[in-house]
Each structure stands twice: as structure tokens, then as C-alpha cells.
Amino acid sequence: ISTLKKENSIELNGLVFLTTYYIKAYVLVDGEYIYTDMITITTEPNYPVPEYVDLGLSVKWATANIGAADPSDVGNYYAWGEIQTKDEYTTANSKTYAKDIGDIKGNPDYDVAKALWGSTWRMPTRSEMAELRDSCEWLWTTQDGASGVLIIGKNGNSIFLPAAGFIIDATITGVSTHGFYWSSQPYETEM
Predict the structure, then answer these.
(1) What pTM, to 2 d.p., does this model score?
(2) 17: closest CA among 160, 147, 120?
């Protein structure tokens, strides 16, 4: 009896970060399927995944921006509804500009928090951002050398939103003076 041992490998693309997959390989021999044992893999996050904070509101909030190493770090810039950074942000290279795609909450094709942090992370809705604005105390301050807003919940817990400014074309404007944050819903009117 001879046994042929050959190792094979495959590359799996398009997997969602922080998701568990169950994999079982098979081979068809003389019309019969022979299966391997099932293996389980859990994908790693593409970016550092922050802790969350309970501010006593309807949802919990991340302690840092996507791509940020810590709460005072600006993190990465994203166009609304896009999950990758770019060298330049224009209407011409936008994947969502002037498209009616509605609320992107939890959709990993458009929701950058879901796509890069996985699990139960998602972008906040407009009403959740309004709740954050209306139900918490906001204090302009500096944290670890970064200007921004310390947001304190009724329960005393807090998050810091750095004044990251915004980017148009390839120019970042308003760092340390302005902070602009996306909700999961398309821009209509100011909150």
C-alpha cells in the first residue's frame, strides 16, 4: 500500500474581517467525495479595533477613529460610503457621489466600520449622532496634544473626538479647529 501525501494551499479573498469561517476540503475520487476534517479560522481586523464606551445612550461608541492608534490620533480619512482611503478625494473618483444608496448602516460594502472592524461595529445613524449631541456634555479641549471635543455621557463615561478637519482633493483643512464625522445616512440637511 502506498500513500500519496501532497500539501495544497489556497488563497481566500473577499473575507470579512473578524468573522469565523468553517472550511472543509474535498476531493472526488472515482465518483466518491472524500472530505477532510473541518477547520475553523477567524479573520483578524484590518485596522486596530478600539474598545467601546457606554455613554448611557442607545448605542456604545468607539474610543478611537478608524485607523487611529489611540483616541487623540486623527486616524484615516474616508469618503462617505467608501471603505478605502485614497490619495485624492473628488466627485469624479467617488464611488457614491450622486448615487441613491440610502442608509449604509452595517453594509460592509459601504460602511467602513463594519468593513474594517467587523463584528457588531457599524457607523452611527443620524439619530444616534443627534442623541450623542443632545444627551451629552461637549467640552472643547486638548488631549495628548490634539485639539478636539471631550464628550461626557450622563453616566460620567467619555470619548474624545479629535478635530480631524476634512479633506478635499488632496488637501486636508481644519485640523485642530474643526471635526467632521460621517453618519450612515446620506447628507441631506444639517443636524
Answers:
(1) 0.75
(2) 120
CA dist 82 and 158 (Å) reads: 28
| Residue 1 neighbours by CB under 8 Å, 6+ apart | none
The one-letter code for the residue type at 21 is Y
pLDDT tens figures, 107-126: 999 999 998 888 799 999 99
Beta bridge partners of 50: none
Q: How far is CA 109 from the centre of its chain?
A: 11
Could you give the count of Cα atoms lying within 13 Å of 183 in the half-sphere of its Cβ? 18
Backbone angles phi, psi at 126, to 5 degrees: -60, -40
Q: What angle do CA 92, 175, 105 make, to 5 degrees?
A: 55
